Amino acid sequence: MDLDGGNLSTVTTGVQAIPIRSTRHGALYQFTQQNLPACKPVLTPATVITTFLLMGFIFIPVGFITLRASISVVEIVDRYDIDCVPEEFRNNKVAYIKDDSLTKNCSRFLKVLKPMRAPIYIYYQLDNYYQNHRRYVKSRSDQQLLHGLGYNDTSSCKPLESSHDLPVVPCGLIAWSLFNDTYTFSRGPTELKVNRKNIAWKSDRDQKYGKHVYPFNFQNGTLIGGGKLDPSIPLSDQEDLIVWMRTAALPSFRKLYGKIEEDLDADDVIVVHLKNNYNTYSFGGKKKLVLSTSSWLGGKNDFLGVANLFVGSFCILISIVFLLLHVKNPRPYGDTTYLSWNRKIVAS
Amino acid sequence: MKIYSFVGSMEYEEQQYPLSLQQLLLRDSKLRNTDYVFGVVIFTGHDTKVIQNSTDPPSKRRKVEKKMDRVIYFMFCILFLMAVVGSIFFGFTTKDDLDNGVMKRWYLRPDDSTIFFDPKRAPAAAIYHCLTALMLYGFFIPISLYVSIEIVKVLQSIFINQDIHMYYEDADKPAHARTSNLNEELGQVDTILSDKTGTLTCNSMEFIKCSIAGVAYGRGVTEVERTMSRKNGPALIDNLGESPDRNVPIKGFNFTDERIMNGKWVNETNADIIKKFFRLLAICHTAIPEVDEETGNVSYETESPDESAFVIAAREIGFEFYKRTQTSLSMYELDPVSGDKIERTYKLLNVLEFNSSRKRMSVIVKDEKGKILLLCKGADSVMFERLAKDGREFEEKTSEHVHEYADAGLRTLILAYRELDENQYKEFDSKFSQAKNSVSEDRDTLIEEVSDKIERNLILLGATAVEDKLQNGVPNCIDKLAQAGIKIWVLTGDKMETAINIGFSCSLLRQGMKQIIIHLETQEIQSLEKAGDKVAIAKASRESIRYQISEAAQQLTASKGTPQQAFALIVDGKSLTYALEDNTKNMFLDLAVRCASVICCRSSPKQKALVTRLVKSGTGKTTLAIGDGANDVGMLQEADIGVGISGVEGMQAVMSSDIAIAQFRYLERLLLVHGHWCYRRISSMICYFFYKNITFGFTLFLYEVYASFSGQPAYNDWFLSLYNVLFSSLPVIALGVFDQDVSSRYCLRFPMLYQEGVQNVLFSWRRILSWMLNGFISAIIIFFFCTKAMEIQAFDEKGRTAGRDILGATMFTCVVWVVNLQMALAINYFTLIQHILIWGSIALWYLFLIAYGAMSPSFSKNAYKVFIETLAPSPSFWIITVFVAITTLIPYFTFSAIQMRFFPMYHEMVQWIRHEGKTNDPEFVAMVRQVSLRPTTVGPTARLAAKDNDLRDSVTNHG
């Protein structure tokens, strides 16, 4: 890079010398004469090779660090949506899940392979579930969530705006389809305590959901969607709902269910008692239960680390290839066959 | 169209009088020595020459704009394709949701749906979705591009207007871009059509050299010599520069020679001939002197500026003509020995006037001693054959000098005289007056015959050379423009000889260049003209022109083997009339395009416009017309760009021009610097604009793939609408206004750079599509890296996962970073302004996110506190941003590094040169610059090169 500014033409261009003016070095003069001091970067081989090397040397360590963080996370994933349907209903899971007369209890045994340090986060994971569908995303009323029955204009919630001519709080498809599988955990004979507080973002609890808004006329229609809500608890404390209402970006997503605030040791066997209430069978979705610790970077995902490593090595590779090419080939100065117009002349 | 003839008749007291051109007083005529005339005003209003020659101004549309329209159509096709593909998928998934009353995705309640999502009416839903998608992906069609371009162009125009190098201090006239529409067109000019008088020349003649008795006098430096010597090397300039002790320059006189000036001529060997020479100049003319009563200075009123140059020259040497009566001419002659003024009076007997077929004029005078002299001056082609046997003493030398002068573009005249004895004169006089008084139709022929007989047996004195003064810096400017590969055509109303002279002095013509002259002065046609059969004339002319054109074309084809041969085409107005007819014009254009220079003389304003139209529509290239007078208006309007010279000839040209400059030489800077920059800026700007909108728009599409094409945008509504306004538009405008690939200095030093615009390499489909591809690649990298990195796992240490809000904001952050960093990579010129705007745009995004997140949740929706609470405290957000932003740029960076190093474009080569500081290495620079000279190039540099070649050839031939 070189700095080249304020240097006026000294070439014999036929332009007559211009009388020196006092404004000559003024910023405005330089601006109007398009002669501001400027940095004019040129992609020289040195710059290019240094840049690639630098990127490589930054990305590779970052890759290692992030990969380490990801590896340090211990995760247990258990898909239960098929196994929790009794054998006789395997061919018609939808009928099973829709039959209210059946109890949907199910037990799972999870083996801890590596020691897990508290807090251990419990997630439910749904696949092929389009929480980002436009109809779904829009079907809520933020005002109602904050102000409750006092807010009447809930047309965005259709078709779940009201039932039996009474407004529904919370209205809309999202709330209506609230996830309602429940889990309890025990290690051996002792039950593991699950903390279900503080799983939502604070700003949601404080500013988006009313402290004096209580569920009303909820899941009272002809068609019951998902979970029910305790009408005596204000919405701001219904953290399940708050987490669920923050819609996922992609059709596969996890949502926080709660936390286990005890360490788990290797070879522990956790017994999960779950109620398999939620219908993912009609659209072919999966349900998984996930127990995971977290690192400073979040949950387990090797992608960022691997990608960093890959891009970093790629950069170094390019810089080497470029260096070799540069050394081997003389630079095409004056070789104007590259000029398109010369090419044209040659061709004609 | 007939501006050189007038036919009319007047009835007065029942008698008819013929009227011809002689009776016509043209605009600006002055009455002298006559108290009044009676007159009738004719040809006014719509009949004036100006209106008759005017053409309807066409609307000018830029090539880049037209191409941009096609790009937009292309983008619209992509947009439509994306929308349709999405709609088809959407239609099928929606239909699938309700199967015989059984809901699949029950959480969407497909049983109780609106038309937009109704499985029972899936086709309708798909069509509605298509409309939604068109709106959503609307970013592919950059509406704001049009607005940005307008802003940029206005600012560019301001730069053109402000340029101090195009400011003409003497007249206090800056350049003035009257429309901001054509800026980048200035960088694509292929052909310049130039007027001559007032544009290339100042319309003033200067007596600069003469050859007397075979000796060349005159140390004055012609413009051509000056330019050529400058090209040879800077050291010569000082030697050839005007002598510093020159007094105040005298208009029309630029002659210095210590052998003649200040009465020194008496010491020359041929003093007698020198005396006769200047006496002839002082007498043989039709000038009328005007004596300023206070100072006693004499000034002259003449028919043509070169004639006044002669009289002035004679006066400066010491032969001061001061009085003309009907029958006599008086002059003071400075006696160099005594220093006294001697008054001499010559009795004027006859004036044999100048006309274009005679190419000479003579006066017959009787001096005080009673000697009768015939003094004659005329073109070399007619004069040499009229010399007497004993008058040819200096013929060889003189003709050599005349040849040299002509090559320098000087207008030459041969001076000769003859002494008549009384009888000869009497015989002539009687015949002459007889011829003059005859009223028959062939009166002119008779006069001509008589004159012809007397103007023989002349004794050669010498030759004069008058320079049709070029405007300041014209040859240099033409040189640069020619090196830039721009073709220059001269369209003038002047005579062919004058036009050719100017061709030489501008280096548009040179020795060794084959001149193809197309004219209708053949005997056959002249005889037909006498017969007056118009149909026959037209037919013969048409055939003659066709023949001449095809003949010339054959010559050109035949000479293809010899690459050094360059051709010049010279056409006169009459021939042009036929050459521009529909069935010949393509032949004519084809021929003209293959010639190195084209000069059209004697052309009417309408013909100028027609030629311009022919070049414009025939070649499809950008044309620029430059002129200063009302007769250039048609041409200026017809050309893609009309440049008016705001000179002395009034404002009509400026009023109808697109850009006005004060001097022809500013054209160099206007085209090579501003034109090049503007073209570059606008084309990069458009490419970049498409890039940035595709990058953004395509992430939206990719997200749709994962949202079952339901039309849910990945980003908050406000992010969407502010993307083009706040986070990416200002740096683009800065690119359009400030970017410079190389500084103005290098633009002028390497005129070949200009060809990038003419060949349109920076706005070729290849380049546009590459940028678009870059956009798609960037979008794909951003989308997949972001989604893969955030996928399903916890987003932060607290175990919470990333929702739509977080993914959207992160992806948007990446997009803002990427498009702005891409801008930083793409520009070549980083001033403080660029820094502020690029980094400012990125900073603005974060500030916006904070401010918007701080507003009440009912307004900010899912962006409420998204930065402060969720993104900022999370390390993964920052790592992802940096990683994705840099990775996305790797393909472009690699590509441009390879191109720069291994396949540099011309401007990149210049950047290398500048970067390595090799600009002062002449060999090196020449290597890069060599390509700019082709055999067909004109201009001083090319002329010098051709001369060198000739020398080398002659050496090899002899050796």
UniProtKB/TrEMBL annotation, chain A:
Q: Please classify the protein's predominant subcellular localization into one broad category.
A: membrane
Tell me the keywords, alphabetical order: Membrane, Transmembrane, Transmembrane helix
Q: Which InterPro entries match?
A: CDC50/LEM3_fam
For the keyword Transmembrane helix, the answer is yes
The entry's cellular-component GO terms read: endoplasmic reticulum; Golgi apparatus; plasma membrane
Q: Where does the record place it?
A: Membrane
Annotated Pfam families? CDC50
Segments crossing the lipid bilayer: 46-67, 303-325
Family (UniProt): Belongs to the CDC50/LEM3 family.
Its name, as the record gives it, is ALA-interacting subunit
Q: Which organism is it from?
A: Cajanus cajan
What taxonomic classification does the UniProt entry list for its organism? Answer: Eukaryota, Viridiplantae, Streptophyta, Embryophyta, Tracheophyta
